[in-house]
Amino acid sequence: MDKILQEIKKYSEVFFDEIVELRRRIHKNPELAFEEHETAALISDFLKQNNISHTTGIAKTGIVALIRGNNPDLNTIALRADMDALPIYEKNEVDYKSKNEGKMHACGHDAHTASLLGAAKILHKLKDSFEGTVKLIFQPSEEKYPGGAKVMIDEGVLDNPKPAMIFGQHVFPELEAGKVGLKSGKYMASTDELYFTVKGKGGHGAIPQKNIDPVLIASHIVVALQQIVSRNSNPALPCVLSIGRFIAEGQTNIIPDEVKMEGIIRTFDEEWREEMRKRVVKISKGIAQSMGGDCEVRIDQGYPFVFNDPVVTQKARQFAIEYLGEENVTELELRTTAEDFAYFAQQVAGCFYRLGTRSEKRGITSNLHTATFDIEEESLKTGMGLMAWLAVKSLKESTGEE
Q: Order of strands across the sheet with 329-331?
């Protein structure tokens, strides 16, 4: 195994410039959820050039590739990367700045895709050195509900062959490049989207007695909803309820007829998640009606929480230590952000881990989903190499081969 580890590290160096260029091409041409046509074409062209068999058009723009080693039916390990960008105007002044105005790879999916392509090239080079098959999943639409993972699963991406386990990798600007982080068990939260229409009776702001003020009603609802977290949820269970949009189309002296609000709820327990949804509706409608108005509530149920299989994650941690050294493998904390990798992990034992992309020296420190987000590109060596190593090592261990 020491020999194949060294081979993977060697190829990570050899292919590095090519993968950096791929990442920059993807970054420069960001595409939103289920619109990743150019990105998918780039991926397909790369796989063709490297003689890697693949299928396109899954969940519209998704791609699945297979790299078959010796005895390919013996076992299968899956690796997943997402491809879509965000509706953000990029502020970075770099050669590879987004040319698609209002769209940006601000969550690192360009790096995820490039890393998986690098891992694909490495694994293809080494396919005679391992037993089994590696399935590569290039997924559209992680950023937008209902997400591409569920659609791909519904279309059979985990079949023929079905993997024994799956790994997903995500950039992490809080961690220095060259390091990775893992957490067993519950890791990322479930997510539901909240949409409110608070209805009242508009009129002149100077004659309040003739109005039913939806702005005031909505304000009371925002404040009251916070008691769900502060007074109803278990303090030991991370839970978030946030209102991020509040639109009242009035004027300085005009009370509008209605107010629109939007928000999210995040938690790690399915029973409490359902209870939260019920409380949101009950509180919102109750307050509105008690003040003479009404409130329509729509809750779009989003992704479940991400659960990292403890056995798979412990093995992945050990494999990462072998590849990077113990000092470069850290323990992660719970995060109340969400990820549709959760759907894969519900079907197959999975591990979703973080790739450090921070560089204090180069000033690459911006958070995810910001207009100045970027990565230290040296992290791509770690990204592609570790994914390849996790796949090879997992296959070898599952077959009992040394």
A: 54-58, 62-68, 133-139, 76-82, 165-176, 349-358, 180-182, 329-331
For residues 153 and 218, state if they share a domain.
no
Q: Which residues pair with 244 in a beta bridge?
A: none
Note if the bond before 161 is cis, omega within 30 degrees: yes
Determine phi and psi for 86, rounding to 5 degrees.
-120, 155
Closest-CA residue to 305 (of 225, 137, 185, 193): 185
- Please name which of 76, 74, 110 lies closest in space to residue 92, comparing C-alpha atoms: 110
pTM tops 0.70, yes or no: yes
Distance CA 315, CA 75 (A): 17
Alpha-carbon 399 to chain mean position: 31
| Contact (Cβ atoms closer than 8 angstroms) between residue 120 and residue 47 | yes
Rounded-to-integer distance, Cα 308 and Cα 1, Å: 26
Rounded average pLDDT over 67-96: 97
Q: Of the residues 278, 301, 324, which one is the last residue of a structural domain?
A: 301
Residues 208-261 have pLDDT tens digits of 999 999 999 999 999 999 999 999 999 998 999 999 999 999 999 999 999 999
**Cα–Cα distance for residue pair 276/233, rounded to 1 Å:** 9
Q: What domain count does the chain have?
A: 2
Name the band, by pLDDT with cuts 50, 70 and 90, for residue 401. low
Range of the domain at 276: 190-301
Decide: residue 393, CB within 10 A, 0-12 exposed, 13-18 middle, 19+ buried.
buried
Which residue, chain included where needed, has tokens 């985990």?
158
Q: Kindly provide the b/e burial profile for residues 281-313, where b requires at least 16 CB atoms within 10 angstroms of the residue's own CB.
A: bebbbebbeebebbbebebeebbbbbbbbeebb
> How would residue 199 be classed by pLDDT, with cut points 50, 70 and 90?
very high
Enzyme catalytic residues: 84, 142
